Amino acid sequence: MLPKVISRRRILLALSLALGFSGLISCVENAPEISQEELYLRGFIKQFGVPADKHSWSMSSQVEAEINLSGRPGGVATFYTDAPMAPGSQILARTNMSGGVGNVCFDVEPGTERVYVKITDDDGTTVWSGLAYNENGKIRISDTRSRAGECQVTAEALDYSVMRVTDNNLAKMKPYVGQNKTWEALLTELGNQEVDPVDSKVEMPIPNLYALNNFDFSQKTPEFTNLDIIPIVYSYINVDGEEERGIFGNQSDMNIYGGEDNITRYYFKDRILDPDVTMTVRSDGPVTLDMMWRTTEGEMYWGYYYYDPEDEAELYADPKKFFDEVPKYVVFRRNSIDPEHSISGNNGLMEYRYCANWSQHPDVYNPNQQHEGDHVIKDEWENLVSSHAKTISTNIKYFRPSIIRSTSIKLVYFGEDGKGDSSYDFPAGTRIGFFYGSMDNKEKFYLGNAKLNYYLFHYHIHTMSEYTPDEDPSNHSIFAAKYRYNGSNYVGFEEGGGDNDLNDLVFRIHNTWPPEVDLTPKDIPLAQPKEWIVACEDYGSFDDYDFNDIILKLSHVGGTNELAIKPLACGGTLTSFVYFGGTADSQLIGEIHDMLNMPRGVVAGVGGGSPDIDFSNVATYTYEVDPESSITDIKDRLYFHTEHPDGRDEGTWIGTETSGDKTLRAPQMLLLPTGWCWPVERRHIIDAYSRFKNWSGNPGENADWVNHIENPDYVYKRID
Three-state SS for 505? Predict the structure, then answer.
């Protein structure tokens, strides 16, 4: 049991020890006794100047997060340092929600402007995700995607034309649709009946096609980073640090998998995706789509349709009836008609921020990387233009994320028959599909169902690998994909340009039942709990101040009750015991050398010729803490008992309490970000981090000192 620390304890030494610190020898009698703490403070001031009054010596900053997504069911909100799939992302906090409401407190590093938040419902489906901003220690999350104003959306008939199979052939084909017969087999079976040539098509207006007037394009998604989408459309870094093709990586960019395109891989070969991308509304309410990616070109338009699930069998059995009778609503119109709200070109539908500026460039670029991830030249970001950049499919390991803000759309419901007043609330069970087409080429009109495309338009897929699909027409005319990825539901489209990557237009869709297939890679890195470093300096000597005598790693997720403590280094020769708890109820964790499997008195894991640590045999210690505890609260419950070098039983306690009544206090314990590298043995901390001196005297203006290593040779190359 750790004895109670007495706040005014003075550990007295003889004058000979005090003078020994100054390099002098004396036999003066009755000299004033100077405490170890006083000697430590004097040495610290000599090296670093007077420390700031009431300095916390902590690089943590507490924030309070409030969530109000009223009307939503229960679920879990998780806070991350970065997008969950980003290399190195860490979990900051997690809290359960009730009725869309929740709150939690946690710690971030100083200067943290934003965190990434992912909110899932009870079955793990994402209902809200993106960046949330820290404003003076407060983070507030609400659903800002509700429609502003009360203006009603109306549907106006549109006159767009397509090339379609003749009515005669559709009539001849109808009895055979349920048998999944191909056009070729059908014509052979019909024999001498009067059938038009299979390639005979007629140009005709698209029936029941409407434009949405007064549709609200102003609502934006929560800001996200391209790390949310590049694991799908480009590549990602796996758990081994290797680059892997994204699940719908562009074949022309990646050039792997033996020349197979995505349609070949997922539909014809692996057979893991449904060629029907129709969605089912999950619960009464709005259906929202977040635009996540777009690389479409030309005079494209895109929209949706819906119908009662009871009518599905009848509609699918008669493609002409489906095409003629189901109302179809255009959301994104032609470039030349509505350039501000088109899915091609430069507009405000999808914007990227590289540094301080927002750009409307339709593709994502990153600057030519010269420093392997070190982005210190701010002007390069602010003045970034496409001619100074390269696509993100190159050097993704050193890619700096761009923040994206994009359009979030709520689909409009006009009643079961499509003739009622507009509403944003769909009945649960409603079936929703998608279509898009091209004004440049009337042959390009695609419904989100491969079989309907095949029978109505006689489309064929020509794959890069020249793989020949079997005779099932469901494997023809595929221009869309639906899938689940990392808890979110996606639908992606292929504009028919020949690469078949299915990522020319990608939406994340909410309030629909998850697709049966989850394409989340098994080797994506999973975010780990946020970690911090506790670095201690003992009273063994006062001529190095390297803060490597005792090094621990703390791991804690705000809102949860588990703390993990892992020892990392023992840069002091003194026998030092580590305790966790309070002043009277602390638990002995162990002696720092013993915990690292090193002989007592031997320094290790601090460079300077010292041995490294074999962490395969080093234990991690877990303790239960109050879920409302901050990392600073937890740090204050750590104590260290260091034996005196002269072997006396009474030792020195390293804690956060101030001994004596002085307002000046030199630190023995620092709480620092997990990426911090401690100084090598017998090197002052300012030899490696010169800005530490400024932070010691003025913490408010020098909180970034940990990010500036002036001399890399003076820090230990960590292997933990």
Answer: strand
Bridging pattern class, strands 652-654 and 528-529: unpaired
CA pair distance 498, 261, nearest whole angstrom: 10
State both tokens at 102: 């929740």
| Residue pair 219/348 in contact by the 8 Å Cβ criterion | no
Letter for the amino acid at 707? N
Cβ contact 542:43 at 8 Å: yes
Ordered strands of the 638-642 beta sheet: 587-591, 576-580, 638-642, 652-654
Kindly list the distances between the CA atom of residue 214 and the CA atoms of 328, 408, 433, in Å, as whole numbers in the listed order: 17, 15, 22
Q: Which tens digit of pLDDT belongs to each residue from 25-66?
A: 334 455 567 777 788 888 899 999 999 888 889 999 999 999
Q: And the tokens for 135? A: 């404003």
Residue 613, phi then psi, degrees to nearest 5: -100, 135
Span 620-659, pLDDT tens digits: 999 999 999 889 889 888 989 888 766 655 567 777 654 4
State whether the Cα torsion 368-374-379-384 is positive or negative. positive
- Residue 119 burial class via C-beta count within 10 angstroms: exposed 0-12, middle 13-18, buried 19 and up: buried
What does 304-348 look like in DSSP terms, one character per residue?
Answer: EEEE-GGGHHHHHH-HHHHHHHS-EEEEE--TTT-GGG-SSSSST
Instruction: Give the Å distances, CA to CA, from 36 to 514, 546, 586, 687.
Output: 64, 17, 24, 24
Under the phi-then-psi rule, with left for phi > 0, alpha for psi from -120 to 50, and beta for the rest, what region is 466? left
**Distance from C-alpha of 238 to C-alpha of 454, rounded to nearest angstrom:** 38
Report the run of H or E that residue 66 belongs to, with start and end.
strand 61-68
Which parts of 570-637 are beta strand (E)? Answer: 576-580, 587-591, 621-624
Length of the chain: 720
How far is Cα 606 from Cα 550, in angstroms, rounded to an integer? Answer: 10
The pLDDT > 70 percentage for the chain reads 82
Rounded to an integer, what distance in angstroms lies between the CA atom of residue 329 and that of residue 477? 22
Beta strands in 113-250 (DSSP E): 114-121, 126-133, 138-142, 154-157, 161-165, 201-205, 209-213, 224-225, 235-237, 243-245
